[in-house]
Automatic annotation (TrEMBL):
It catalyses: 2 GTP = 3',3'-c-di-GMP + 2 diphosphate. PROSITE patterns: GGDEF. PANTHER family: DIGUANYLATE CYCLASE DGCM-RELATED, REGULATORY COMPONENTS OF SENSORY TRANSDUCTION SYSTEM. The chain crosses the membrane at residues 29-51, 57-77, 84-104, 110-127, 132-151, 163-180. Keywords: Membrane, Nucleotidyltransferase, Transferase, Transmembrane, Transmembrane helix. Its EC number is 2.7.7.65. Pfam families: GGDEF. Residues 229-360 form the GGDEF domain. It comes from Pseudoalteromonas arctica. This is diguanylate cyclase. GO terms for molecular function: diguanylate cyclase activity.
Length: 360
């Protein structure tokens, strides 16, 4: 059976791969808060032990860094906004390092503390922002180390060149690592989404399949009841489809199923969920629609189907009809029972002579 997508895939937007993104978010948060935790402890100890040795400007900036880091952690716990917290924290740490290099720290050992900065910045902020902040720190260090005298401490020539060389290497390899990690992560995310969408798509008609409703949609309705409940189920079955297949061939039967799907898409609103349940049976879910309104909508659709003409390859005009059973779902846990009721209603519609709508 060839894949013939005939539908606007608006229902596909309901499929997500949040678990893939949330594990990446955990990685970023873990890198950032490990750094924040370590820096809070190290800075507190350094200030406590060396406040007499440090210049006032260095002591003040270290205290500001710690206050900012603690505030950022509280803000993250309250809002979950990791990107903002990471940007503020890493910018403040960058400024602190500039102040540290400017003043030299204890025994002019400032440069040793900077090495981990590119690694954490790329891990917590990604390629672009990581590159900007890492480059800002590198550039500031070059100005302080090699620029004109504006009050900064002086470092030995060997120490300066070794620092710039090793910091640049860490920066470069952190950039390469993060760039390709991000690229492969996005590729995996795309494949995961595509596979999930494929698993939920009916290959012939391109609309959702039964698995989409039972494995995905019901969970969605459970988590966002205000958006979907109560909803009506329309169980729709083409009439005498076997004889159509027998008379005009299986390929023409497929064409009818595709044409019928086009009618589903054009006659129901985009918010209605249309799925092929199997064979010549379809389900339409009308969110926030009661059974009474659904019956009116279903009758209009039934008339549209009956009035639609499909041409065979040899230009014969073929009309089809459908029977519809309807029920209402008030709680997601009632879905199976309501589907059974819709099935019974459909059976009654067939028994009543087909091309009719029965609600339960
Ligand atoms: N062309 C085509 N036919 C299919 C497909 N899936 C199921 N069918 C056919 O659909 C027909 C369903 O037949 P029945 O269940 O007897 O239903 P019906 O002939 O529509 O009769 P009523 O439902 O009672 O009106 C069978 O002949 C199946 O082979 C498909 O993907 N393509």
């Amino acid at each position: 059976m060839t894949k013939k997508n005939v539908n606007k895939p608006n229902w596909l937007s309901l499929i997500n791969i949040d678990s893939v993104y949330s594990s990446d978010m955990q990685r970023k948060a873990f890198s950032l808060f490990t750094m924040i935790g370590i820096s809070i402890v190290v800075i507190a100890v350094l200030v406590f032990l060396n406040y007499k040795v440090y210049s006032p400007i260095l002591t003040a900036s270290l205290i500001i860094v710690n206050i900012t880091n603690i505030s950022c952690s509280i803000y993250f716990i309250r809002t979950g906004n990791l990107q903002v917290v990471a940007l503020i924290s890493m910018s403040i740490v960058c400024m602190m390092f500039v102040a540290l290099v400017y003043t030299g720290g204890k025994d002019n050992t400032a440069l040793y503390w900077l090495m981990f900065y590119p690694v954490v910045t790329f891990a917590s902020l990604g390629v672009r922002l990581g590159a900007w902040l890492g480059f800002t720190l590198l550039f500031s260090c070059i100005v302080i180390l090699y620029g004109p005298d504006f009050g900064q401490v002086s470092y030995g020539d060997v120490e300066k060149t070794r620092f710039i060389a090793s910091f640049s290497m860490v920066f470069l390899f952190s950039f390469i690592g993060e760039y390709f990690r991000h690229k492969s992560h996005m590729a995996i995310a795309d494949i995961t989404l595509e596979q999930k969408q494929d698993a939920y798509t009916d290959p012939l008609t391109g609309i959702a399949n039964r698995r989409f409703i039972t494995s995905h949609f019901l969970k969605l309705a459970q988590t966002r009841p205000e958006q979907y409940l109560p909803f009506s189920i329309l169980l729709i079955d083409l009439d005498n489809f076997k004889s159509l297949n027998d008379t005009h061939g299986h390929d023409f039967g497929d064409t009818v199923l595709i044409e019928f799907t086009k009618l589903l898409e054009s006659q129901f609103l985009a918010t209605a969920l249309k799925a092929r349940y199997g064979g010549e049976e379809f389900v339409v879910i009308l969110p926030q629609v009661t059974v009474a309104t659904a019956t009116v909508i279903a009758n209009k659709f039934r008339e549209a189907v009956a009035g639609h003409v499909i041409f065979t390859d040899d230009k014969q005009r073929i009309s089809i009809t459908c029977s519809i059973g309807i029920s209402q779902v008030n709680k997601v846990t009632d879905y199976d029972d309501s589907l059974k009721q819709a099935d019974e209603a459909l059976y009654s519609a067939k028994a009543a002579g087909r091309n009719s709508v029965v609600s339960n």
